[in-house]
């Protein structure tokens, strides 16, 4: 993984960088996600081996941090590694969506993972009730939750298998815990390689490696200009990353959009997830000519390991595009991203950088995930918010629970 920064980010900031690094090292003593790359995963691997080929589908009931990470990784790898089982996600109370997913799975050939840190999320529990009313065999369910949550108590009562989240790992930072690892492992994703990728970024940051400077520089820039460049666009040039950018939107938005810890100011950098080349034909106009309130990070894949090529044929009236003849699509998509990057650099007032991942594999997505978790923590520290809580989300949940009580 490489990170090329095209904006001036590092002048006279040595003291600030040192302080920021120390603050994160200190936070690492209490916040659990930092050291997930070196956790023991034997229990997850051993449990996965107990599943035989009669289970064709893994069904996740979860929302937000309990589903988006596993979905991002599964969908990233799907085009290159046919998964051994299909992974389905029930994330919505939209009845049409519930019915649509149900029509694709046979419950008798499925294992259901009920994932909720709090164990009391309305979306997850309502869908669980719906499925449990049809299929109440406890061995068809595995629960992932906090120890002593109401869901833990229920799962214990019916005698299902339960995995616990480390209490100091928050929902949206939990993809590299059992929350993401179990569903992925059950679909034969190489979770060791995933953690290996994350570990490379962790080592690089905490042990003076090549990513330390760019992460610190970027975080300081984003924080310093968070009122000027208050929108951060993540522009990924591969369809494989479309759910990764969704995961990023949740991580960045829910972690950084807050009231500051020691003031009454509301702050945040708005995340936008874009996919190239598709969004060149829509949102790009706003970046190039719109208000100068956006920074842009491009993600590129260095090696698609695929030689699909535009055929060398001449078509009447389309001769002006014969320049496309014989070009491999991987080269075309890279030329497209490079052309947009060049055009934006010419504008001179749009801060941008490029992240280049080696290929579509577990190690690369593990790196990207850990890189973005770290960047989120760094920016949160600098803009003085509690990166790990979500009072804004909680307030709506409380009102909904009141409304539900009053409805009865
Ligand atoms: O990051 C978070 O804390 C949230 O997005 C949660 O993951 C989400 O609200 C789901 O919560 P739970 O896992 O408790 O069901």
Automatic annotation (TrEMBL):
Q: Please indicate if the UniProt record lists Cytoplasm as a keyword.
A: yes
The family database entries (Pfam families) matched by this protein are listed as: PGI
Q: A single GO molecular function, which one?
A: glucose-6-phosphate isomerase activity
The GO biological-process annotations, alphabetized, read as: gluconeogenesis; glucose 6-phosphate metabolic process; glycolytic process
Q: Which InterPro entries match?
A: G6P_Isomerase, Phosphoglucose_isomerase_CS, SIS_dom_sf, SIS_PGI_1, SIS_PGI_2
State the reactions this protein catalyses.
Answer: alpha-D-glucose 6-phosphate = beta-D-fructose 6-phosphate
Cellular localization per UniProt: Cytoplasm
Does the keyword section mention Cytoplasm? yes
| Protein origin, superkingdom | Bacteria
The Enzyme Commission number assigned here is: 5.3.1.9
Task: Provide the active-site residues from the annotation.
Answer: 254 (proton donor), 281, 397
Pathway in which this enzyme or protein is active: Carbohydrate degradation; glycolysis; D-glyceraldehyde 3-phosphate and glycerone phosphate from D-glucose: step 2/4; Carbohydrate biosynthesis; gluconeogenesis
Q: Where is the signal peptide?
A: none
Alphabetically sorted, this entry's keywords are: Cytoplasm, Gluconeogenesis, Glycolysis, Isomerase
Q: What does this protein do?
A: Catalyzes the reversible isomerization of glucose-6-phosphate to fructose-6-phosphate.
Q: Which family does it belong to?
A: Belongs to the GPI family.
Q: What is this protein called?
A: Glucose-6-phosphate isomerase
């Amino acid at each position: 993984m490489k990170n090329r920064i095209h904006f001036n980010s590092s002048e006279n900031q040595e003291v600030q960088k040192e302080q920021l690094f120390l603050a994160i090292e200190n936070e690492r003593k209490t916040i659990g996600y930092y050291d997930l790359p070196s956790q023991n995963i034997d229990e997850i691997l051993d449990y996965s081996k107990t599943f035989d080929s009669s289970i064709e589908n893994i069904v996740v009931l979860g929302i937000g941090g309990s589903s988006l990470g596993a979905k991002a990784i599964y969908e990233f790898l799907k085009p290159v590694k046919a998964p051994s089982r299909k992974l389905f996600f029930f994330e919505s109370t939209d009845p049409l969506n519930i019915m649509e997913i149900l029509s694709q799975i046979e419950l008798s050939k499925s294992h259901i993972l009920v994932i909720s840190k709090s164990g009391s999320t309305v979306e997850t529990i309502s869908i669980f009730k719906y499925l449990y009313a049809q299929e109440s065999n406890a061995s068809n369910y595995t629960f992932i939750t906090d120890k002593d949550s109401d869901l833990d108590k229920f799962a214990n009562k019916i005698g299902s298998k339960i995995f616990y989240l480390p209490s100091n790992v928050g929902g949206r930072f939990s993809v590299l815990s059992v929350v993401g690892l179990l569903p992925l492992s059950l679909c034969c994703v190489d979770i060791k390689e995933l953690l290996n990728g994350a570990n490379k970024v962790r080592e690089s940051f905490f042990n003076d490696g090549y990513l330390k400077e760019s992460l610190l520089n970027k975080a300081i820039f984003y924080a310093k200009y968070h009122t000027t460049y208050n929108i951060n666009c993540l522009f990924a040039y591969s369809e494989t990353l479309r759910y990764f950018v969704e995961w990023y939107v949740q991580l960045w938005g829910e972690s950084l959009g807050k009231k500051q810890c020691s003031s009454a100011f509301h702050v945040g950098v708005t995340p936008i997830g874009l996919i190239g080349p598709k969004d060149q034909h829509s949102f790009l106009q706003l970046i190039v000519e719109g208000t100068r309130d956006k920074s842009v990070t491009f993600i590129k894949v260095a090696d698609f390991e695929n030689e699909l090529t535009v055929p060398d044929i001449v078509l009447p009236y389309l001769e002006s595009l014969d320049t496309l003849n014989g070009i491999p699509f991987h080269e075309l998509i890279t030329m497209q991203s490079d052309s947009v990057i060049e055009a934006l650099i010419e504008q001179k007032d749009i801060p941008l950088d490029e992240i280049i991942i080696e290929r579509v594999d577990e190690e690369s997505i593990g790196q990207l995930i850990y890189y973005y978790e770290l960047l989120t923590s760094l920016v949160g520290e600098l803009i003085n918010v509690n990166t790990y809580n979500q009072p804004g989300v909680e307030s709506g949940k409380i009102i909904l629970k009141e409304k539900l009580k009053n409805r009865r």
